Target: Nuclear transport factor 2 family protein
Amino acid sequence: MVKIHAKEDCGNAPKKIFVQDLLVAIVNNDETFISKHTTDDLRWNIAGGASVEGKDTVLTALRQHRSDTLAELTIHTIVTHGYHGVAEGLLKYKDGRQVAFCDVYQFKASANNAPVKAITTYAVGTE
Model:
């Protein structure tokens, strides 16, 4: 399992908790959670790279991007409002590599339990 570092939250922001849970599910390969909380037409855009569409296609792409060498996920910031959410943090790998990331989530609706219909990932290797 990947070690998770995240700030305590006040507990009054259900979408922030959901975004954190989704990030944890992604890094820990929890396809059941991801599938349950995303739309069938889910789209994943990787800034400067490919875009994939359709839940099954996105799950396949996530499998291909996963790494057994990922050691830690640090979540610095989560912000949500209405139809959107943003998570920013750092991925640390066992070989010492680090990747700063920012994921932008688009929800199907503004309701707290709305599934994710699109994710755009920005990632930069750090030293």
About this structure: The chain has one domain: 3-126. The helical segments are 14-27, 31-36, 55-65. The chain has a mean pLDDT of 93. The chain is about 25% helix and 45% strand.
